[in-house]
Design brief:
Layout (H helix, E strand, L loop, with lengths): L1 H17 L3 E7 L6 H18 L5 E2 L2 E9 L4 H13 L5 E3 L4 H14 L2 E4 L16 E3 L4 H12 L4 E8 L2 H14 L5 E8 L7 H11 L5 E7 L6 H6 L8 E5 L17 E4 L9 H14 L5 H20 L4 H8 L3 E4 L2 E5 L6 E2 L2 E7 L8 E8 L12
Parallel strand pairs: 1-3, 1-4, 4-5, 5-6, 7-8, 7-9, 9-10
Antiparallel strand pairs: 2-3, 11-15, 12-13, 13-14, 15-16
Helix pairs in contact: 2-10, 3-4, 5-6, 10-11
């Protein structure tokens, strides 16, 4: 009898809280320099909602409404739009954004309105670290997951590394986490270089890196952390870093960006996703459905968006409610299946723990991009991701 009463109460809570519909706000950089990432993220979110609801776009009979808002990669605009989504649109939960800088501006709004912001795909560690609050969850990987997985892929005896990154939260947090991840290995960072996010001429930065590395002894690598255009890898490679014994290394990226990787056969690193790597039913559905609808394979952020969409449905369904406190209680420690396999929201900081993939670049005729061939799946248990919000 007690179980029946509890189930009935949960159903009533969902019906009352949803008031005829479940409103999800997608607040993301739909236009601007990262719009390719944004489109993938939105396509993935919608596919995730579809998959998790078996095509009904309903949760326990309540229809899902997705409200789109374009931050244009402006932190102030992102903050205002999230407040609008919670306050005027009465969104039960928000997803986004693309940019780490925009995400950091949005975090306090979730706390002010006491509504969940599910961060996808912004990466900076500080989102679930020093700037975190209890209303923030993240399905996207963080800088530490990028860093630890790439450290595993690149570290070795007498490895000396220079880094190049964008001078904002994504780049700074990424290199800080990478430096920490290398501690205790035989590799070390000997030079760091930061440039504006919109840099297209890397000559000066490359010369500083070459000068710093010229007299260094060891296996020399230049590790690049980059989002968006500019093609630093290709442009620096054209300057022949091999003159100084330097090899370029980086993590994974979207397929369009990975066309530049064709210059680097055999290069190793770690990636968040490549559609041919995961072997599970969710990814099978994503690859097949995406190919049918969009005429090509799903990409880096499509998988992330889908993971977020499935997480939203699973959380509301399991909680039996859109009430924030009930969602938080449900989501802390929640495991669910994604195109990457199982993800788990860590209770301490609400970061989604997940697999990453150590790859080696392979070039094939007739394939427009370089193929990140799997060397080893790095599971949740393989990746000691630090908690940074304490």
């Amino acid at each position: 009898m007690k179980r029946i009463l509890l189930a009935g109460a949960a159903a009533l809570a969902l019906a009352g809280a949803a008031s005829a519909e479940i409103r999800i706000a997608h607040v993301y950089g739909k236009t601007g320099p990262l719009e390719a990432y944004a489109k993938q993220s939105h396509d993935g979110l919608m596919l995730g909602l579809e998959y998790a609801t078996d095509g009904t776009m309903e949760i326990d009979g309540e229809p899902i409404t997705v409200i789109e808002k374009d931050t244009q990669l402006d932190p102030a605009r992102g903050r205002a739009l999230l407040a609008e989504a919670y306050g005027d649109d009465d969104a039960h939960i928000a997803v986004g954004p693309v940019s780490s800088g925009v995400a950091l501006a949005m975090l306090p709004v979730a706390q002010e309105y006491e509504r969940i912001l599910l961060v996808e795909p912004a990466v900076a560690d500080s989102i679930t670290g020093s700037n975190w609050n209890r209303y923030i969850f993240r399905t996207g990987r963080n800088s530490s997951q990028d860093a630890v997985s790439n450290a595993i892929a690149l570290a070795g005896p007498d490895v000396k590394i220079a880094t190049l990154a964008q001078d904002y939260a994504f780049g700074r947090d990424g290199i800080a986490a990478f430096r920490e991840a290398l501690e205790g290995t035989e590799a070390e960072i000997v030079h760091e270089e930061y440039v504006p996010t919109d840099t297209t001429d890397f000559t000066a930065a490359a010369e500083r890196i070459f000068n710093a590395m010229e007299d260094v002894e060891g296996d020399k690598k230049l590790f690049i952390v980059w989002a968006g255009g500019g093609n630093p890898m290709g442009k620096i490679q054209a300057m022949d870093p091999s003159r100084y014994g330097i090899e370029i290394a980086t993590g994974g990226n979207i397929l369009a960006a990975m066309s530049a990787y064709k210059q680097f056969p055999g290069m190793e690193g770690a990636t968040y996703y490549y559609y041919e790597i995961p072997d599970n039913p969710v990814n099978d559905w994503l690859v097949e459905t995406h190919q049918e609808r969009f005429g090509g394979p799903p990409d880096f952020f499509t998988a992330g968006g889908m993971a977020a969409g499935i997480a939203v449905v699973e959380a509301i369904r399991r909680a039996g409610s859109t009430d924030t406190e009930e969602l938080i209680a449900t989501m802390e420690g929640m495991e669910w299946e994604t195109p990457k396999g199982t993800m788990r929201f860590r209770e301490e900081d609400h970061q989604a723990l997940q697999s990453m993939y150590h790859f080696r670049i392979k070039v094939e005729d007739g394939v427009e991009w370089a193929i990140p061939e799997l060397v080893r799946e790095l599971t949740i248990e393989d990746l000691p991701i630090p908690v940074r919000n304490q």
